TrEMBL record:
Its EC number is 1.1.1.85. Pathway: Amino-acid biosynthesis; L-leucine biosynthesis; L-leucine from 3-methyl-2-oxobutanoate: step 3/4. Binds 1 Mg(2+) or Mn(2+) ion per subunit. It catalyses: (2R,3S)-3-isopropylmalate + NAD(+) = 4-methyl-2-oxopentanoate + CO2 + NADH. InterPro entries: IsoCit/isopropylmalate_DH_CS, IsoPropMal-DH-like_dom, Isopropylmalate_DH. Catalyzes the oxidation of 3-carboxy-2-hydroxy-4-methylpentanoate (3-isopropylmalate) to 3-carboxy-4-methyl-2-oxopentanoate. The product decarboxylates to 4-methyl-2 oxopentanoate. Keywords: Amino-acid biosynthesis, Branched-chain amino acid biosynthesis, Leucine biosynthesis, Magnesium, Metal-binding, NAD, Oxidoreductase. It comes from Postechiella marina. Homodimer. SMART domains: Iso_dh (SM01329). Belongs to the isocitrate and isopropylmalate dehydrogenases family. LeuB type 1 subfamily. This is 3-isopropylmalate dehydrogenase. The gene is leuB_2.
């Protein structure tokens, strides 16, 4: 298969972790006789510094003309500490999501056996957790009208959803549930919010089409607690943009490190793959950032194009690296010198030679 991939490393540790994902994809291409090409684009603060825009036209052109996007991270402390800045790194990411209509953000959360003791949660409560979060990504409060009164004392952000926006991601979430444990939980605040009531109404209407899926509903406040005390009760979670943002960071605690969580952002025409973690600027160029989230995002990319055997090999490599403690300091206790690129090298070696790869 030939795949043209846009690589948008962005800020902070983005370039380092993305380089490991590219390394892994190159190894897969060789092993399975595929042709993967990579084209780099500027995004985020890195793009603002060079062009004045967080999402330069040139980057958008690259993204529109490639099959998939591999995204790193965006943000710097300079911008985080200055929320009033008009040009912001986040505009790069939000602009890509909106322009490419990447409406479904899928965030898998797994409790790896070998990492159960890395989570601050009780082992017996998290063992066996396997959740797929479907977060709506191009609407809701993130994209609704923003207002600030003239005197600067009243501000509002509109949370608006249309039937179409809810239906299209709900269908994907139902379909995903059908391939898993056939349970779908809609997380909302339907006791208070009109937009949540619309979500419930529409999702209930669609349910008969997916009669083999058990549908239930949970308020976001309760869900935040349930995720911590009994995450195994969830299979597929469906939720709106901001609730999904918050609970996916919360859910990362189950896996033991946010450095493990990958995501796919899917639309009708385009697809982007990215770690859910941020730019982690403090770690930039220290070789301590965990590349697994980015490497697993590459596995999601492969699966998106039907390359299941290839993705399975990447996942096996990741599992093996975790089992052998070939991990960065966020997870490691056994060895203290395993760098970002060493983890990538190990997984690359594993792909080249699955039988014989061990720590060397
Ligand atoms: C995420 C991030 C983004 C979001 C930020 C960087 C705009 O937190 O992908 O979860 O809020 O969606
Ligand atoms: Mn987030």
């Amino acid at each position: 298969m030939k795949l043209d991939i846009a690589v948008l490393p962005g800020d902070g540790v983005g370039p380092e972790v993305t380089a490991e994902a590219v390394k892994v994809l190159k190894a897969i291409a060789i092993q399975f006789d595929h042709i993967f090409t990579f084209q780099n684009g500027l995004v985020g603060a890195a793009a603002i510094d060079k062009t004045g825009s967080a999402l330069p036209e040139e980057t958008l052109t690259i993204c529109k003309n490639t099959d998939a996007l591999l995204f790193g991270a965006i943000g710097t402390p300079e911008y985080d500490n200055n929320p009033d800045a008009k040009v912001r790194p986040e505009q790069g990411l939000l602009g890509l999501r909106k322009t490419l209509d990447l409406y479904a953000n899928i965030r898998p959360v797994i409790a790896y056996e070998s990492l159960l003791n890395k989570s601050p949660l009780k082992k017996e409560n998290i063992i066996g957790t396997d959740i797929s979060i479907y977060r709506e990504l191009t609407s809701g409060i993130y994209f609704g009208e923003k207002r600030l009164s003239e005197d600067g004392n009243i501000a509002s952000d509109l949370c608006q959803y249309s039937r179409e926006e809810i239906e299209r991601i709900a269908h994907l979430a139902f379909k995903a549930a059908q391939t898993r444990k056939r349970k779908l939980t809609l997380i909302d605040k339907a006791n208070v919010l009109e937009s949540s009531r619309l979500w419930r109404k529409i999702v209930k209407e669609l349910a008969p089409k997916y009669a083999d899926v058990t549908l239930d509903f949970m308020f976001i406040d309760n869900a935040a607690m349930q995720l911590i005390i009994n995450p195994r009760q969830f299979d597929v979670i469906l939720t709106e943009n901001m609730f999904g943002d918050i609970i996916s960071d919360e859910a990362s605690v189950i896996g033991g490190s946010i450095g493990l969580l990958a995501s796919a952002s899917i639309g009708e025409k385009h697809a982007m793959f990215e770690p859910i973690h941020g730019a982690y600027t403090k770690a930039t160029n220290k070789g301590i950032a965990n590349p697994i989230a980015s490497i697993l995002s590459a596995a999601l990319l492969l699966e998106h194009f039907g390359l299941f055997e290839e993705a399975a090999l990447v996942r096996e490599g990741v599992d093996k690296s975790l089992k052998l403690h070939i991990t960065t300091p966020d997870l490691n206790t056994k060895y203290d010198n395993i760098s970002t690129s060493k983890v990538g090298d190990f997984i690359e070696d594993f792909i080249n030679n699955p039988e014989e790869t061990n720590l060397n």
